[in-house]
Structure prediction request, 505 residues.
Amino acid sequence: MSENKAVAATEEVILKVEGLKKDFGDKHVLNGIDITVNRGDIICVIGPSGSGKSTFLRCLNCMEDPTAGHIMFDGEDLADMSVDINLHRQNMGMVFQHFNLFNNKTVIQNIMLAPVHTGKKAFRRLREKSGYSSVAEIKEKAQKEAMALLKRIGLEDKADVYPSTLSGGQKQRVAIVRALAMKPKVILFDEPTSALDPEMVGEVLDLMRDVAAEGMTMIIVTHEMGFAREVANRVLFIDEGVILESAAPAEFFGNPKHPRLKDFLSKVL
Amino acid sequence: MGDFSQKWARFLKYFIEYEGYKRVQTGLKNTLIIAVLGLLFGILIGTLIAAVRVMPKYKRLPRILNGFCSFYVGFFRGTPMVVQLLLFYYVLLPILGIKVSSVQVSVLVFSLNSGAYISEMMRAGIQSVDPGQMEAGRAVGLSFSATMMMIVIPQAIKNILPTLGNEFIALIKETSVVSFVGASDLYVAFNYIGSNSYEFMVPYIVMALIYIVLVVIITILIKLMEHYFAKSDRRK
Prediction:
């Protein structure tokens, strides 16, 4: 497993965060976070609840607007309010704790919606230069890709049902392929297994492992220590809005340095 | 009851022989036009206002729009429909030099009025949709308005369908005030039959029955729509 990771991660910087701060009113949630993410990195973020790890993740794609700092992605600073955040979010997928599938859309529509919408937008702006010759072609292609993604997670027979009929594990797997359908450069996972029944955690983690093995860059906030140890090539420990420790998993779990981390690990392991 | 059958015969005479039914037809048509168009435009206006009201407010434009919308909703909820009709027909439109028929004015006022009420229903509807739906839409790169249109508002409408039905029923019944600006609705038609035949009992009973039948039909339509929207629901 460790050889795979070495192959997957590259030296190409894909995301660089500098001095990221976030206040909610006079509550300081993030107090200056610096991190560089290379293409192919699998970074797990752990920490006690209320430590700011979810806020950190949500600041990366500006779901929460950072109070201060820089988030360099695709040559632009996402923390700058003038950048077109919608454009960058297409390259930065997100998977939520509570799945957040679109309730009024069928499973396949959930997956196709964003690719079709952004495809149409590009087509309207660029006409033939967008690489499509018609709107029908955009839909057809998106449908084919969505079907392939559903086949991959073994839910092709669920294509036309509404999310309310799926189990939690199925919902989360659909949510993951919905993010994949946009072919993002990074996917952010916000506690993807925390809202699942224990028996469904495995199927979701398996899919995430699978996505990781393909070389996708992933930043994962999680409580699954076993998963972090096995899949991540770097693990971060965040508490009180700062990164207290950042190391390869063997080092992180085998030889933790910071007393807060030692204390935390002794409680959860 | 001999008296009543006489009255009934008299009504039928004026209704059929003297072609009162034609006026009733026009009245029914106008009533439906005003109520249906009022509802449709009202939904459009109400949805736009509700979207403005739930917009994030850290930029200047949404704040200005929001102020305007508060004023609009305040005015149309703060004055009776009759007053609004009179103001538009006898004050505002003449000042602007616009010539329109009384039915057109009624459609305009009913749209604006129901827009104000529907905006508050729609705001409640939008706020009843899980914020995660908006986040998920934004996270895949859709804009605020695209997510609103495709994801949030359809779910909001589903949630407020019963209240929208209420609004439609109220609109149908409130059309009876458009005679103030000279539009002929159901009330005008039956009042005409009554005053010509010097007999008001039967015309007004029939008028009431027609309103009830209209409302029953609307109720059934709303039930059907609720059933249609329930397809994405667990509670089938």
Chain B has a mean pLDDT of 90. The CA atoms of residues 33 and 83 of chain B lie 21 Å apart. Residues 20-54 of chain B form the longest helix (35 residues).
